[in-house]
């Protein structure tokens, strides 16, 4: 009897937290066209779930978080139409992470390179093991990391991004933390508990407020300061009228835990 192949993407849920696990460890959890599509589909499905407030993205196997593109798809003379679809799909994936109403956390063990590093940067938060390393090594094989530079330049600044892009070097987790690519570094044995604790803290908040806040944060970042303040004023006025804001303010004044609409 032939065994069915392992799923490319694993999905688990625990209360208000969903975990998506890249499950191609033998291929470095690389983002094949199919795995990127699976991730987009999972994110689209979770976007409709008001009961899910946090999404964790991790890689199976522990050795590599994600090695980026599956280079087996680029050998020889790849079909230009496939390449266009592939890069469109990858861009759509990163934007799906950014546009998800949930807070998305990257749990990074091992190596995150090229589009894998891009995925870390696209996530709202990222925690890494002290053994994790980060790189955009395309330059080493004659291929500039064109799409990773989009997330890196917007997350860690131009010079820190260019250092990664132009050298292709592997940088330790401590460097990734120092330049703002990740939030914190943990002992490998402590990382899962640290990620779960962070997810639980965030999941205790109002789902509506988290979704509104993430959308507001990303939108204002692309605006001029005057435009951002006009935008923030409108968002704040709409927010304060929401049931969860009314409940939160009342709970604070009455010195009791709030009871959110979505639990």
UniProtKB/TrEMBL annotation:
SUPFAM superfamilies named among the record's database cross-references: ClpP/crotonase
MF GO annotations: hydro-lyase activity
Matching CDD domains: crotonase-like
GO BP annotations, alphabetical order: fatty acid metabolic process
InterPro entries: ClpP/crotonase-like_dom_sf, Enoyl-CoA_hydra/iso, Enoyl-CoA_hydra_C, Mitochondrial_ECH-domain
Lipid metabolism in keyword set: yes
Protein name: Enoyl-CoA hydratase domain-containing protein 3, mitochondrial
